[in-house]
Each structure stands twice: as C-alpha cells, then as structure tokens.
Amino acid sequence: MEQLENVYFPRVSQYRFCQLMIENLPKLREDIKEISMSDLKDFLESIRKHSDKIGETAMKQAQHQKTFSVSLQKQNNVKFGKNMYINHDRIPEEKNEIVLKHALEEEDENEEEVLTVQDLVDFSPVYRCLHIYSVLGDEETFENYYRKQRKKQARLVLQPQSSMHATVDGYRRYFTQIVGFFVVEDHILHVTQGLVTRAYTDELWNMALSKIIAVLRAHSSYCTDPDLVLELKNLIVIFADTLQGYGFPVNRLFDLLFEIRDQYNETLLKKWAGVFRDIFEEDNYSPIPVVNEEEYKIVISKFPFQDPDLEKQSFPKKFPMSQSVPHIYIQVKEFIYASLKFSESLHRSSTEIDDMLRKSTNLLLTRTLNSCLLNLIRKPHIGLTELVQIIINTTHLEQACKYLEDFITNITNISQETVHTTRLYGLSTFKDARHAAEEEIYTKLNQKIDEFVQLADYDWTMSEPDGRASGYLMDLINFLRSIFQVFTHLPGKVAQTACMSACQHLSTSLMQMLLDSELKQISMGAVQQFNLDVIQCELFASSEPVPGFQGDTLQLAFIDLRQLLDLFMVWDWSTYLADYGQPASKYLRVNPNTALTLLEKMKDTSKKNNIFAQFRKNDRDKQKLIETVVKQLRSLVNGMSQHT
Question: Which domains does the chain have, with CATH numbers?
C-alpha cells in the first residue's frame, strides 16, 4: 500500500479509478488494523488459556536442571573428599555414583524433549500487529492496549481459587499460571523492541510478588498437614528458582519461606504431640525385659544405653527404662529429619540449618514432649509404680540429649569446631517432668494413706483396748512397706522425701482423727487402743523403710502424737503444767489447746461414770483434779491468745 501510494499512484493520479483507490486506502488500513487486532485478541485469549501449560513446562525444566546440579554436586563431593551436602535422605555415599548416573541418563533422554516458550506459543500475531501499528504510526496505541490487557490478565492469574489451600494441585495450578504469564512477558521483552520494557516487567513483577506473598501467607495459614506444607515449600522453591532463571528477583519469596517454616514446625509439633501421646498410652511402665543377646542388641540399637554392670549380667535381664524411652528417642530423631526436609533448598548455610534444627528440636522437647509428660503424670490411672518408672525414664532421656546434639551435628555435617550454636534444652524438660512426677508421688501417696485412714472404725467408748493394733493400720503399713520397696530404684532424696512426707501425713491424719469436732467422747480404753496403733507407726518408722535417714529422724514424724498420748496415759499433768514453756520439757510438743480439746472429750464421758472407773475407786477429788487441769489449760490457752 505504501508503494502504491508513494510510487505508482502519482503516475496515474489523473484517472478517476485511481482517485477512488486513493480514497479507499485509509479504510483499508483501518480494516488491516482491525483484523490484526482481532488476531492479537485471539492470541491474548490463547496465552491466557495456555499459561498454566507454559508455566508447567518452565518449572519442570528448572526442576530438572536443579536435580542435575545437585547430583553433580554430590558426585564432586565424593570425588574431592568434600562432605558439605546435607544428606537428609540418608543415601549412603557409595550410592552417589548411581544417583549421578541416573541423572545423566535422564539428561540425555530429555535432551530432545526440552521445549521453549516458542514451541508452545505462536507469537506471530503479536509481531504482525506490532509491525502493522508501527508502520501506521500508531505504535503507542498498540503498546497501551497490550499492556492494559496483560495487566488485566495478571490480576486474574493472581486471584487464587478459594479452596486452593486444600490440595497441592491447587497451589501447583496457581504457580504454573503465574510462571506462564511472566515467561511470556520475558519473551516479549527480549524479542520485541519497546512493546514491554524492563521497567514495566519489574513493576508488574513487584505488584505480583506482593499479591503472591499475601495470598500464600493467608492460604498456608489454613494448612494443618505438615506433608502438604512441605509440598507447598517445594513448589515455592521451584517457582522461585524458575522465575529467578528469567531474571526476576525472588528474595522476598525465600523470606516468606522462613515464615512458612515456622508454621511447618507448628504442624510438626502438633503431629508429634499425637505420636508421643500414643507412645505413652501403649507403654506398660515396666523395665524392658530381654532374654537373649539378639533382643539386647535390638534395644541398644534404638537407644544409646551404656551400663557395664547390665552387660555382665546373664540372661534373662531387664533394662531400667520402659519401652517408651527408645520409642521417644527414635521419634525425636524422626522429627529432626522432618524439620530438616523443610530447611534444604532455602539458600542457607549448613551452620544456619544446624541452628534452625536445634531451635525446632528445643521446641519439641520443651513444649510438646514436656506438655505430654506433664499430662501423662497427672492422669488418674497413672499410679505410684508408673510414676516411679516415669522418673527413671526421664533420667535416661535426659542422658540421651547429648547423643541428639551429636546426631544433629552429623546430619548437617557441621564440624565440631564450628558448633557454637544453640544447645538442646532437654535437660530442663526432663528435670521439670521429673519434679512434677515426684510431686505427684507425694500427692498420690497421701491420697492412698487417706483411703486407708477412712477405713478406721474405732469404738471410742471402749473400756479396754483390743490388745492388738487396728486392722486398717496394719494394712496401711504393709502397703507402705511394699511401695517403698519399689522406691529403691528412685534417687535417694526422692525416696526419703516420699517416706518422710507419708509419715508426717499419717501422723497429721491420726491427730486430726482424735481432735475431730464431730467426735464428742473418748474413753481411756480408746486412747490406749489408739496408742497401740501409734506404736506400730513408730516401729515402722524405726525399721528404716527407706535407707539414708539419720538416727530417729523418721520417728520424729510421730513425736506430737507420742507426747500427747503419754501425757494422757500416764496422767502426768503436774509435770506438764510445771514444765510448760521449758525447752527441756518432757511434753514440749503438746499444745495446751490440743490437750484441752482431748481432755474435754474425756471429761464429758467421766460425768457419765462409764470411763474413769478407776478414779471412782479412790475419791471424788479426781473429778476435781480434772476440773482444775481444765481450768489451768484454759488459762494457758487464753494466755497464748493474748500473747499472740
């Protein structure tokens, strides 16, 4: 048309047909523009539909390239004696040759299959349309239209499906469409002059990146499955690597991955809380029995246990810990592997990854495992023998923490010299759990004592004692003897504290029984029967149920009861009243209020002439003596209250 207009038409312009043709040229030009624009619209619709295929191809190529590079790196590490690659998948070094061989074979096989964006998309409508608008001097209109339409498409591509977070395929479609979009823009940038500029694509990418990060942050927060979060992370890495290969900056995506990593660890912690609960639920809380060398080796292959004395023992024999200990140890290692899976490909050094692993393992120990242990300890069905075993178990898990530290160092291949990072806080976790178990032992022991004491059935008006200790008390003492046998496996201080706590609680319970406000009358025969029971308590305390007590330390738990009962049975009021307040008093531990309360219960019965029969044989002065003692005791009590 240009040639006609500029070369030929001037030669024949005098003819009328020529004038008609000249007049039609602008309309023809517009028709051509419209047709080319229609082709462009078809092209834009086509790439919108096929952008996910374009993106999928580009991401596959990026992933393939990365796999090959990693395989090559592994091969070089073996070849040159380097050990810098994190062996997260536990592939032995000798297998690296095979890995590389397969990678090279795949590279050869795929050599012919590598598709470029031009293979997938016919860009000729863009070239034609751009050329036509340029020739017609309307290039700016074309550029504005193209950019405006592509920005609209970008906004559509960046809008995720509402259920995207439910499956990995939802995320994959989202990423492939975005990659496809920018691969096309990158191609247009490089093969056309000025249709899009680097500044334009950078602006578009920055807008897209902000939207992508917001979308991923929102959708990933719904995810509770660590496997899905891990797949998402792998997709983001491939997505980032692909676009980085096309020159787009992706640092913000790796920063986002650090946020998602924290969330991944949270999902792992929740998953492992369930794992730990199941392990504790299935444990029988008995030492692990082994009948032969093979069984012995199986246990020590799962858990780092060393005890020369146990090794020397003949079969059958028992490990001190129960089966939950090796299972917990194995699962902590599995958690570390799972945590490591996320840390790879994050463009971080081995030292940083080592530090991240330690921090996440610390959370597992101090928060998840600690919480599970504390919940276990407080469960109603966990009895005293189970609590003793839990204390023993925590001691062995605590000792295993140093092996977990070495394990992390080994899988991240950090040299011992460079380890100056976070230590594991397992020691504090297991100490806390142990202290909680100890407190629970003291509480449960006291509860058991209460159960026995509630079975007491004294005849408080008996005239003569039975001559032997009460059945409930003998049952209680037999129970305490058997339970303290189990306590021999506990650290000395715990066993001693439990024993002292039990004796003190028993003494307090017996004293409360005597002084109970519901109990109105007590005979001397009942006091003598009660004394027989207290003698059994003292005999138990003196028999050293738990080793390590000095002298009569344990018997002193019953000293208040002993002095009170002696005072009443000997009827030694003159000594008590004369020596009251003296440090060397024989009845130093008898509170006047306590003595008064008990004497009031006995005075009431004496009035009915059915208790103090021995006093009637003498003279009525005995009654007066009681009244006198009561008055003097009240005087002491009043003096104490005024002094207070």
Answer: 1-71+117-248 (no CATH), 456-641 (1.20.58.670)
